[in-house]
Automatic annotation (TrEMBL):
Domain DUF4145: 50-116
Source organism, top-level taxon: Bacteria
Protein name per its UniProtKB record: DUF4145 domain-containing protein
UniProt xrefs under InterPro entries: DUF4145
Length: 166
């Protein structure tokens, strides 16, 4: 155990706080009401999503900036460019995603003429915006990834059909 890690444990015990460390990385206990990442969320999105979860209570603006990066990464995973989020979301709407998702993302300043570039802090973010963004990310994963998996699984479970030769 490194001296610094030991010192952190001692200091936290003295202050009445507990911390847990694994491989020199502090594990933050989750006590937020923010939804966990969807089980089918691509790996490329999970780390950023969880980072945004850990800071949302203390800094909704920073959390929203990170979530914009998650949207870009998710668009790439869904086969879109991941460059022009407006076009990517529009393409998903054309493929059947509800149009209301697009208008909600405009409200959260992810897309549209007032959209903020990914990773930039938007000073106009309200505390509810990142919470909406977490929900929308999980919804998009459910609609675009999980539903497709369920349909594919149902198809794979169909019996092989052989026409009668009578």
């Amino acid at each position: 155990m490194k001296l610094q890690t030991l010192w952190e444990k001692i200091r936290r015990r003295k202050s009445g706080q507990q911390s847990f460390w694994i491989n020199e990385e502090m594990i933050v206990l989750d006590n937020t009401t923010v939804p966990h990442p969807h089980a089918d969320m691509p790996r490329s999105c999970i780390k950023l999503y969880n980072e945004a979860r850990t800071i949302v209570r203390h800094s909704p603006k920073s959390s929203a900036a990170i979530l914009r990066l998650v949207f870009y990464a998710l668009m790439k995973e869904l086969g879109e460019t991941g460059v022009h989020i407006d076009r990517d979301i529009h393409a998903l709407v054309k493929r059947g995603m509800p149009k209301r998702i697009q208008t909600t993302l405009e409200y959260c300043r992810v897309t549209g003429k007032n959209g903020v570039p990914p990773g930039e802090v938007d000073l106009h973010v309200t505390p509810d915006m990142p919470l909406i963004m977490f929900t929308l990310i999980n919804f998009i994963v459910e609609e675009q990834i999980t539903r497709a998996k369920r349909i594919e699984k149902a198809y794979d479970n169909l019996p092989v059909w052989e026409p009668d030769e009578t």
